């Protein structure tokens, strides 16, 4: 007896132990499975968003004809306009509980509630890769849907358009615009233009501290906390691009003291590791122990971030094992 056919072809997400699965969320998707035309349909359909890689999702027929014609054999249209782009929300499970990976359709702009009110209405424009932005009003933080990578000018235009629609929806005008410290990010350029147009201050936030502060806000934690941010790349306060950082921080600022061991890792030399920060572990070992609180790395670290400690350049395997490696 032949083996049953798998629900999903082996060519879908090869070498990936996980598949993203969603139920039909629109009547049209249900009709794809159950339309009474005598055609037998499979139990699963493989779908992706309607866009070229790196570009924003197509929103109207003109966009679809221009962008999708080389990619699709047929295009199913509709006479109802799409007002706001919304990519798929992605969730996983962590410790047997749902864990948000990418907050978008169905979840954004549902707000986070802070434990205290903000001092001003804030527009935080976000970073360059996997961009999304946030509007803070009172004790509420409204995250935007996923926007995308801003290397494509079409995505930059989508960011500007979505920000304008968000501010109109919330009936608010920012009193402060916040952006990344990197002067070359397209998100920084957008933030500068908006700050000039609104005649409000522009506040630039160091990249890795922004990640730590976002985690604190999501969990309503004031700190101080030990923040570990290894996302691949971030513009440092010394003008260099850092690959990661360990810091002591609170909700107002990045804090460093004589007794605090923290480190930055210069950027690794390939874009592969920038887009896959887990690969940085191949280039950095961190040892936190009571005797030296030092780290080992093939890179040179700026002297201002050295903690003194034991002064050795390398740690023996026994030393590393006796410490508490991260």
Q: Could you characterize the architecture of this molecule?
A:
The protein has 326 residues and is an alpha+beta fold. It contains 7 helices and 16 strands. Strand 5 and strand 6 form a beta hairpin. The longest helix is centred in the middle third of the chain and has 18 residues. It is globular and about 65 Å long. The N and C termini lie far apart (51 Å).
Helices, strands, pairings?
Layout: H1 27-34, H2 61-68, E1 90-94, E2 97-102, E3 112-113, E4 122-124, E5 134-137, E6 140-143, H3 153-170, E7 176-180, H4 186-198, E8 202-205, H5 207-218, E9 225-229, E10 234-235, E11 241-249, E12 254-255, E13 263-266, H6 271-275, E14 285-288, E15 295-296, H7 317-322, E16 324-325
Parallel strand pairs: 4-7, 7-8
Antiparallel strand pairs: 1-2, 3-6, 4-5, 5-6, 9-11, 10-11, 11-12, 11-13, 14-15, 14-16
Defining traits:
5-stranded antiparallel beta sheet, alpha+beta, 7 helices, 21% helix, globular, 6-stranded mixed beta sheet
Distance between the termini: 51 Å
What kind of assembly state do the chains in view correspond to? single chain
Q: How are the strands of the biggest sheet laid out side by side? A: 3-6-5-4-7-8
- The secondary structure category is alpha+beta
**How does the overall form come out from the CA principal axes?**
globular
- What is the makeup of the main sheet? 6 strands, mixed
Strands, total number: 16
Beta-strand portion reads: 15-25%
What is the H/E order?
HHEEEEEEHEHEHEEEEEHEEHE
- Which radius of gyration do the C-alpha atoms yield? 23 Å
Q: What is the helix fraction of residues, given as a range?
A: 10-25%
């Amino acid at each position: 007896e032949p083996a049953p056919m798998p629900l999903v072809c082996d060519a879908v997400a090869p070498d990936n132990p996980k598949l993203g699965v969603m139920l039909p969320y629109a009547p049209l998707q249900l009709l794809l499975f159950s339309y009474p035309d005598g055609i037998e349909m499979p139990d699963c359909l493989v779908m992706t968003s309607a866009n070229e890689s790196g570009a924003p999702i197509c929103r109207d027929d003109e966009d679809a004809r221009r962008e999708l014609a080389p990619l699709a054999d047929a295009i199913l249209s509709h006479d109802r306009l799409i007002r706001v782009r919304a990519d798929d929300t992605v969730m996983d499970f962590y410790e047997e509980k749902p864990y948000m990976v990418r907050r978008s359709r169905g979840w954004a702009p549902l707000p986070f509630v802070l434990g205290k009110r903000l001092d001003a209405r804030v527009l935080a424009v976000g970073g360059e890769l996997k961009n999304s932005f946030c509007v803070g009003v009172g004790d509420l933080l409204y995250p935007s849907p996923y926007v995308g990578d801003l290397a494509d000018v079409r995505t930059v235009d989508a960011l500007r358009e979505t920000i304008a629609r968000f501010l109109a929806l919330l009936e608010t005008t920012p009193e402060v615009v916040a952006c990344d410290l990197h002067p070359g990010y397209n998100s920084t350029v957008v933030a500068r233009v908006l700050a000039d147009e609104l005649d409000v201050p522009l506040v630039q936030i160091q990249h890795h501290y922004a990640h730590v502060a976002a985690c604190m806000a999501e969990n309503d934690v004031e700190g101080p906390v030990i923040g570990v941010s290894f996302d691949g790349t971030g513009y440092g306060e010394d003008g260099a691009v850092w690959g990661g950082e360990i810091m002591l921080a609170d909700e107002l600022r990045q804090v460093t003291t004589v007794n605090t061991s923290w480190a930055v890792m210069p950027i690794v030399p390939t874009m592969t590791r920038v887009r896959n920060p887990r690969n940085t572990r191949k280039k950095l070992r961190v040892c936190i122990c009571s005797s030296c609180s030092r780290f080992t790395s093939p890179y040179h670290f700026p002297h201002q971030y050295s903690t003194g400690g034991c002064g050795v350049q390398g740690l023996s395997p026994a030393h590393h094992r006796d410490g508490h490696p991260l």
